[in-house]
Fold these 3 entries.
Entry 1:
Amino acid sequence: MENALLSLDHVSQMFKRSEGRDLKVLDDVNLSLKEGEIVGLLGKSGSGKSTLLRIVAGLIAPSSGSVVHSSAGVADGQLSIAMVFQTFALFPWLTVLENVELGLEALGVPSKEMRKRALAAIDLIGLDGYESAFPRELSGGMKQRVGFARALVVNPQILLMDEPFSALDVLTAETLKTDFLDLWLEHKVPLKSVLLVTHNIEEAVVMSDRILVFASNPGRILSEIKVDLPHPRDRQSMAFRIMVDQIYTLMTSGMAKPGAAIAEKSAEGTLYDKLPRVSPNQISGLVEALAEAPYHGQADLPALDQALGLGTEDVLHLVEALRMLKFAEVSSGDVKLTAAGKMFADAGTQKRKMIFAEHLIQSIPLAAFVYRVLQSRPGHHAPRIRFMTQLEDHMAEEDAEEALSAVTSWGRYAELFAYDDNAETYSLENPSA
């Protein structure tokens, strides 16, 4: 971490939960930010990336480890850090100019200087002429430009970006990425370093000088990749595609091992697995796509990502669902249908439901557990809180919600059980089955 502007040394983060059990979000993270580089943090949701940003920003203190700021070239020994958020975070009752001025006002900058710097930042980011507009008058891309202007106007040395393009449509996101990279490469912004959080592999390779690939549960650095590609980066070049494929292989390496995503072992085996929240229709659609030409049962994940037009994380969630249901195997960045997956693709509607039900019971312990509880209860009914309470003893509330929602959707499709959303109750329609 020599010559680093900022470094994280053995940082871990635990959060206290209401029932007294600690949830480990980050585990022994070491990273550095050096002058003149964009560092990408790449990982799936739940890998602690946003928590890490908050630690770097000084918004929360790590449970253990330290954040060290270099004093080189910094007047008071503290780096100036600003953040761009995913959800714009603009005040709707303030104009573009007033939103941009907020950071300067907090710093006590005189009003005349504040107005001058805010107008310059608005012009720099391409919003000249919209100073008096309110957020409701702006498109998503324009709102995010205001977010960039508000961050840049305080002349930060480090810019933190928390998935800043994920809420935008593809074309708008590409334009904003290109414009920001132009400002960075032409040294038109005062930044010394950028830390970019993303779950989009191509975005990380397009923008970053180094990429830190994060594993989940808890978040930890799986690998560091140096991106030695000249700007502007050609997404169709062999070197670019090889790097994307390499990262896909890294991010799916845990999928090759059954139970890799287990949060905690228990008497029920892998009852507390995190489950991808994807619909049965999406699962069926991916199986069908893989079974047909040009894949004929096996596909390279980066190529599949491009062909489907989905985000990286969406593809990874779908592929993980196929793996967990034993409809596909994943290795070396490729996904390959199993015999069961091919049988599912060839089957009619009712046969598919039967295959899906069989694999739910055999391969998804939470589905089997819900089904078993319903079979054993008088009347074959059980309230949703029965299962949420058990899951929350071992999982974060958000993960428990997602797991139970996924199982509910999958169980309904397979006709294993019914769910009444108004009564929040599960039941068996055919208890003797």
Note: The two ends are 61 Å apart (CA to CA).
Entry 2:
Amino acid sequence: MTQEVPAAPAEHRVPSLSALAELADEMATAEHGVIMVMGKGGVGKTTVAAALAIGLVQRGKTVHLSTTDPAAHLTSTLDGELPGLNVSRIDPKAETQRYIDKIMAAKAPKLDAQEQALLLEDLQSPCTEEVAVFHAFSRVVSEGRSAFVVLDTAPTGHSMLLMDATGAYHRQMTRELEGHGSARIVTPLMRLQDPAFTKIILVTLPEVTPVSQAAALQDDLRRARIEPYAWLLNKTVLGSGSRDPLLRARMRHERIQIERILSGLATKLFSLPWLPAPPVGLATLSRLVRASDAAEASVTKHELG
């Protein structure tokens, strides 16, 4: 008679999560669009954005990888060039100067010297930078109509200011079109609200505070009628197989956060394992999203102990 093997205790079971390579597979089913990687500072947005961009190139897509983050770690994270991948940065100072130059070139010829000086002084206000960055952001988002755009966004506070500007522009345009019958405009906000065009990936760490911060960001996005596509849990140690008491205690806390996320915060949850060294360079990042490595990379599909 075969003896029945008892199920593993609940604390040893690892929730089934999907790997980053599987997320890249899902993204690649579309022909084009925008993927925005969002979250608090320090959760690994740049790593995830760079890896997803590389994964899409691996799957035959043309990708523009850009960042709105003032820290701009993209170049050092990639540490190389890849055919099919265009990398850029929305630099607030450069975009502001470009915007000022454009306005001055258009209006200055019609003004005298004093009026030009007043216009230039007016353009030096902090509002000009917000407008300039918004216009640059809108240009990048519009590229998603014909190719893939992956955006490594600034930390939450900066990103929500950009979302506010996007919403303000949308309201202004819709007011101006009232009463124009069939006139129609597609604003950047409308593109972000379109789940077929824009996929928002919320990155967090498997800890109480980062998960709460991601949940608050999700609430802000939902108020703007933008629904995140998925969450990604970065630096998870579940599946490491460690017997170390401290790591096993961390695993127990991670399970609690995963259950919290899956019990109502997210319908799709992907994972990226804790790595002994930061994933820097094209070769390392490529391994995180290589399709053939999906099963191996999905460390949270193993059982502990």
Note: The beta strands are 18-19, 33-38, 63-67, 85-89, 148-152, 198-204, 230-236, 269-273.
Entry 3:
Amino acid sequence: MEYIAQESPKAGDTVVVGMSGGVDSTLTAWLLKQKGCNVIGVTMSVWDGKLPEIKGDKPIHESCYGPGEEENIEECKKFCLSQGIEYHVIDVKDAYQKEVLEYFKSEYRSGRTPNPCIRCNRFIKFGALLAGIKKLNIEYDYFCTGHYAKIVRPDTGLFGTETRPFMIAGAVDSTKDQTYFLYRIPSEVLEKVRFPLASLKKSQVFELAEQAGLEAASREESQDFIGPEYFDAIFSDKPGIPGDIIDLDGHVLGKHRGIEHYTIGQRKGLGIALSYPAYVQAIDAQKNLVVLAPAEALYSDALIADDFVWPGNIEPPDTFEALVKIRLASRPVPVTVERYIPDENDTEKYTGTPWKITFHEKQKAVAPGQSAVLYKDGIIRGGGIIAKACRIPVSAGRPAEGRSTQNAANGALAEGRT
């Protein structure tokens, strides 16, 4: 199957550009303006000012959600004014609170590791923001952002159908690949979406921005949806419930201050000194337990994921081979994907049809709540939310250096995710 890159905006087209004040979105707007497009800039406003002001000597980290939004908006206004670009700020605070912040807190409090950026792209940037543009009666040919990705269509229908959905492919700069964040955007939305930076490397983006004299070229890039300074404040609406930190044998090692402060694979900030490097291996929300284990107890040979999305809503008919990414920073690895039929011992509550993804090479720290995104020929072929890891049992007995075993954890976590 061949994939056809979709045409880019051309001179005379009306293009709405989602702007954040950063170099990527600013250069995107500038390039389209130079191309002769009728560019309209929009920025989504998500900061509601409800979190307490953080004071101190250290600067607040750049982030998507934080008090720096007002400054970002002013920078966007200044740029658009200098370029003769129409500009709007669209309030999406209520949707952001519901779809991103509440989701983020709920997932962590359920012992899962959420990805708020994926949620934001699906429901806010390519959801509430587009709805806000429509309310302003803005007609446009394309909606563009500064993401590093590309829109393509297959030359034939998927899985024997006649449907040729709009799909997401990787950009030229694989080191800045952002397809993982975009996989849940529906194909019908992608039809009018374009990513003008798809053919550029990040170094070229900075070079072009500097040559154009754009102030955004000197800005620090945001790395997270919220600065670490505000993490505790987000969860201040409900006090954390302290509980036990245990090893795989069920021995109590210490106390945690609330499971929302932990994630699978975490090593730093545990406050536990052991004779071996320990990591968070499991989080049991029902029993309010955090389980520590040596590195070898974190490996899985498969995972079960649910809540899947497929290009064009076309579900694969049977088992297939693909590559999967289980987190943004992970490399794509070969897998076999097949429908999963739960047995009577599986008490997990699944959303939609669950699929089993079996690794050809074992993977470390598979975290429920994160996304498993499937690729074939460099194109996103679907993805879902990790429900649980199928871990490789650690051999019985306690090695000399003090490592615990998998066996006793089965009793300690009989009703939780292991």
Note: The first strand starts at residue 3 and ends at 5.
